[in-house]
Design brief:
4-stranded mixed β-sheet; 5-stranded antiparallel β-sheet; 385 residues; globular; mainly beta; 2 domains
Length: 385
């Protein structure tokens, strides 16, 4: 039987920084308390002690006027379960106060941890409350659109090609606590004292010799490798969709003489019209595949098919038309690193199709916008997208 973790409690402070008496806070005539507990795509487990929920929506269960909230942690780790924040809202004298937990779950021995309790995370550089799980850039008409507001609360940002943007922010966590976040080694840690000795950004790709490497739709100039500035080159036109590019960003952090790193892929898409958006639905498909040491016997979670969301702007409102009969046809091309290019002559050398999504497993019983895939049966160890 799982033992419940210590319950969550809270303290309300007045404008002078003095804590309010518990009797005042727990009086429903003074304070309205609401907890939001995630119920989908989460590593958190609700407890019976919380009682009957006041209401439920698609992603959260809400409890009213509880002074404490109990929870537990799922027994099995799942990298896709990223909705792990418990929310608290308190209405007091016409003022709405909000707070939320900041849980991070990692697997021991995960790549980039260097065998320690440190882990690096790359997150969209945005002020959105719920940034997308899958960073994505879409060529929509004549615009290039990022699916989150870069360093803003906007839902989208229109960017220019070959222009520096800080698309991501790096974070360093230790035993569940955030110790540093930023873009370069000049950014201080949470304690305002410590700094990483090195922060290095790069596009992750296979390099075959001094002049030949995988192509990518992204570029990090040598002087930007320490600042986190990333350029989108706009190379993924329609003709390029048959050979997807190596669009994986890597950030390495040297902290107390040890190296840690994280990677994040960027999805690119192309539409004929600015009136359409195409997205990969979050928490669908699998996020990682584990191979044996000899590159055989792939293990992955195929319980959720990949699902695509197609939105159309109708009368200035974005409508989900994903399963409107006859509205579209999906042709999904398995991910690959794409062509290799000579960095001096800029000529394509050969097609290096390192396919990780090998073929569909089945289509029967799935919606039009759902596809089920399996990974390649063998893996060479080279990076893939």
């Amino acid at each position: 039987m799982q033992q419940a973790i210590q319950a969550l409690t809270f303290t309300v402070y007045d404008n002078l920084g003095n804590p309010l008496n518990d009797e005042i806070v727990n009086n429903i005539n003074n304070c309205k308390i609401r907890w939001g507990f995630p119920i989908t795509d989460t590593m958190l487990v609700d407890q019976e002690e919380n009682g009957q929920a006041a209401s439920i929506d698609e992603n959260y269960r809400y409890y009213d006027n509880l002074s404490i909230l109990t929870y537990n942690i799922a027994q099995r780790y799942d990298v896709r379960k990223q909705r792990n924040q418990i929310k608290l809202t308190i209405d007091y004298k016409g003022i709405s106060l909000t707070a939320e937990t900041n849980f991070t779950f990692v697997k021991q021995g995960e790549p980039g941890t260097n065998g320690t309790e440190y882990v690096v995370k790359l997150i969209p550089n945005t002020k959105m409350n719920n940034p997308p799980l899958w960073p994505m850039i879409t060529k929509s008409g004549s615009d290039y659109i990022v699916n989150y507001g870069i360093n803003s609360s906007a839902n989208e940002t229109v960017i220019g090609i070959n222009t520096n943007y800080k698309l991501f922010k790096a974070q360093l966590w230790h035993s569940g606590d955030l110790v540093w976040e930023g873009f370069s080694a000049t950014d201080t840690a949470i304690d305002n004292l410590t700094k990483p000795s090195v922060v290095h950004w790069e596009v992750l790709k296979n390099k075959y010799n001094s002049t030949t490497a995988d192509e990518s739709a992204f570029n990090i100039e040598s002087e930007a490798s320490t600042t986190g500035d990333i350029q989108y080159t706009g190379d993924h036109l329609q003709s390029d969709l048959n050979t997807p590019l190596a669009n994986i960003i890597k950030c390495s952090i040297t902290w107390e003489n040890k190296l840690y790193y994280a990677t994040i892929p960027i999805i690119t898409a192309w539409t004929y019209s600015e009136n359409y958006r195409v997205n990969l639905k979050e928490y669908t498909g699998f996020r990682y595949v584990v191979y044996s040491a000899d590159g055989m016997f792939p293990q992955y979670d195929n319980s959720h098919p990949f699902e695509f969301i197609i939105n159309q702007k109708i009368n200035s409102i974005w409508e989900d038309v994903s399963n409107v009969a006859g509205n579209y046809a999906i042709e999904y091309i398995p991910g690959a690193c794409g062509n290799t290019k000579n960095t001096q002559s800029k000529e394509t050398v050969n097609a290096n199709l390192l396919t990780i999504l090998n073929s569909t497993i089945y289509r029967e019983g799935l919606l039009d916008n759902q596809w089920q895939y399996r990974p390649a049966s063998t893996y060479s160890g080279e990076c893939v997208n």
